[in-house]
Amino acid sequence: MFWRKKPPEPPKAPARADIIARAKATASAKREEIGEEALDRIRQAIIRKQNDPLERAKAKIKSMEEIKVSDHVRGLLRGED
Questions:
Q1: Is residue 40 part of a domain?
Q2: What are the residues whose beta carbons fall under 8 Å from the beta carbon of 69, sequence distance 6 or more?
Q3: Where are the alpha helices (DSSP H) in the chain?
Q4: What is the pLDDT of residues 19-65, one digit of tens each?
């Protein structure tokens, strides 16, 4: 006399292909909204920043070990080369 209800099934995650298709559609819509000219300016700014000697030096320092960097800085402060 007492019937149990089956618990509802959780919603299934969308397929990988659906996610990719939705992402491509969104990207193309935003690209049209922003405009190719603005995107080209952004690309050029990124390229200039990547080629900047200061930015390359920062990236190199970040990739080095912390102790090695501190030793180099201490050597520079002492006047050693």
A1: yes
A2: 61
A3: 16-34, 36-51, 53-63, 66-78
A4: 999 999 999 999 999 999 999 999 999 999 888 999 888 888 888 88
